[in-house]
Amino acid sequence: MGLADRIGEWHRNDYSGKRKEIERLRELYSAMVDGSADPRVGELEKELNELRGQHEKAQEEAKSWPERYETLQGQYKDFMQARAREDADRFWDKHGSIKEDPAKVEKFGQLLDPNGPFGGEWDAYRAAELLELSEESFRTAVEAKREGAPEKTAIKLAKAEELIERAHAALQERAAAEASAVEEIAKKKAVEPRPAARITSGAERTTVPRAASPSAMDSQDLDERRLFAVRRAMRVHNGGKR
Q: Among 51, 77, 90, 166, which is 20 to 30 Å from 32 by CA?
C-alpha cells in the first residue's frame, strides 16, 4: 500500500467517524425540538442491559467453580497417589532385599526421617545405597552430609574410602602369603641334606683291597672330578689313605 492509499484510507475513516457524530447530534437536536427522549439514554440502557447479562452469566459460571475446583483437586490427588505407587513399586523391585532384613528396614526408616539420627532425611535411593556400605563407610557418608556435603558426594566419598580399605587389606593378605611361602621354602632348605651327605649316604668302610681307582685328574668330566674329590675327602676324614 502506497502513501497515497494510506492517506486516502485515513481520510475515509475520519470522515466516517465525523459523519456518525453529526448524525447523533442531529438526532439529539430533533429530540430536543420535538420533546422526545434523548437517544443517548436508549444507547446507555442497551449497554447497561448487555453488561447485566454478562454479569449474570459470570455469576452462574462462578457458582460451578467450587465444584470444578474440588473435581480438579480430586483428580490431582488420584494422579499423585498413582504416581507414588508406581515409584514405590519401581523402588522395591530394585531394592526388595531391604525388606528381607529387619535391621535394614529399621535403619531405612530412620534414614527417611527428617529428624532421624543420620543427618536428616535422605533420598530413598541414596538411603538404599548407604545400606550396602560397611559400617565404617556408612558413618563416613553420614558425617559428610552433616558437614554440608550433598548426598551423592557423601556416598562417593564413602565408597572411595571403602575401595582404599579393600585394596590395603588385599595388599596385606598378599604380603602375608608371600612371607609364608618364603618361610616354607627356607624350612625345606634347612632339612635338605648337603650334596656330600647324599653321595656318601649308606656307605660302609671295607678292609677288602680294591683295585686302584682312577684319580680325579684322569676324568675329563667336571662332575666326576667333584665326585672323586668328595670321596677322597671322606677317606681322609675316616683315617684312610689319600
A: 51
User: What's the half-sphere exposure (Cβ side, CA atoms, 13 Å) at 203?
Assistant: 12
- Yes or no: say if 81 and 93 are a contact pair by the CB < 8 Å rule: no
DSSP per residue, 100-112: G-HHHHHHHHHHT
* Domain ranges, ordered by start, for the chain: 98-192, 194-199+217-242
DSSP per-residue letters across 114-175:
TTSTTTS---HHHHHHHHTS-HHHHHHHHHHHHTT--HHHHHHHHHHHHHHHHHHHHHHHHH
Q: Are 132 and 119 in contact (CB under 8 A)?
A: no
Say what the pLDDT of residue 38 is: 62
Whether the model clears a pTM of 0.70, i.e. scores above it, the answer is no
CA angle 225, 229, 232 (to 5 degrees): 140
pLDDT digits (tens, 9 = 90+) for 18-28: 777 777 777 76
Please give the pLDDT value at position 62: 86
Q: Which are the contacts of 165, defined by CB distance < 8 A and separation ≥ 6?
A: 136
Rounded CA gap, 227 and 91, in Å?
Answer: 80
* Of 141, 64, 148, residue with least CA distance to 107: 141
Report the C-alpha gap between 241 and 4 in whole angstroms: 150
Is the pLDDT at 139 greater than 60? The verdict is yes
Cα 69 from chain centroid (whole Å): 40
Residues 188-226: tens digit of each pLDDT: 777 666 555 555 555 555 554 554 555 545 555 556 666
